[in-house]
Amino acid sequence: xxxxxxxxxxxxxxxxxxxxxxxxxxxxxxxxxxxxxxxxxxxxxxxxxxxxxxxxxxxxxxxxxxxxxxxxxxxxxxxxxxxxxxxxxxxxxxxxxxxxxxxxxxxxxxxxxxxxxxxxxxxxxxxxxxxxxxxxxxxxxxxxxxxxxxxxxxxxxxxxxxxxxxxxxxxxxxxxxxxxxxxxxxxxxxxxxxxxxxxxxxxxxxxxxxxxxxxxxxxxxxxxxxxxxxxxxxxxxxxxxxxxxxxxxxxxxxxxxxxxxxxxxxx
Length: 267
What we know:
This protein is globular. The protein has one helix at 2-28; strands at residues 31-40, 46-54, 59-67, 73-79, 91-92, 100-106, 120-128, 137-139, 146-149, 154-167, 179-180, 185-189, 192-193, 198-204, 209-216, 222-230, 234-240, 246-253, 258-266. The strands form three sheets. Strands 1, 2, 3, 4, 5, 6, 7, 8, 9 and 10 form a ten-stranded mixed β-sheet that branches. By secondary structure, the chain is mainly beta. Helix content is 10%, strand content 49%. The chain has two domains: 31-167, Immunoglobulin-like; 181-266, Immunoglobulins (Immunoglobulin-like, Sandwich), CATH 2.60.40.10. A hairpin with a 4-residue loop joins β9 (146-149) and β10 (154-167).
């Protein structure tokens, strides 16, 4: 009986080692894939690039640079955030005129985030200039590509662009956070100031609406936010420039989710 028992144990050991090898191979080959699909509106030249995920399992952080051809698409804004702990502070638009957005996100709870395959992450809004290939891609040209899971292991990141166009759903109840403002105009005067100098945000338009003016630095860090009520054809809102010299962005958000971004230089 002993030879038979030893043979069975040897077989079980072999099966166990094979299972552990296969399990380790599966873990090692885990990756995150982001899928992008352009959705157009026949009544507008603004298109949505909806980003969904696959393999977003127990992830702690990710960072990368997203690229496109500026001769085909012109960046407008980014919104419709669905990923927990994702906000305006998790992406930078400094190089958007060169066809690049930089992303950096981490799980605010520090335990690893999991979302179902096919879940919406965020949406990038572009103005469509031509029907050519936009050459969408993800790389480390400005921000090193890195995806870290809850075990502090780095996994691979892939991007898949679905070339089949989709149409925006007119019945969708999702409210766009960052669609451009169309019913109001906004400007900063002066837009070149000294540190802590007073400046004026000028809003023009006939619509009564509550506005939120937020100032960001080049890294996308929120410095301050001020809420005002636009009642007349022209509103003048007093703001203070940041204390440090540099280039800043003042983002105006209205109640309908419309956004306008203005540049401010502090000498």
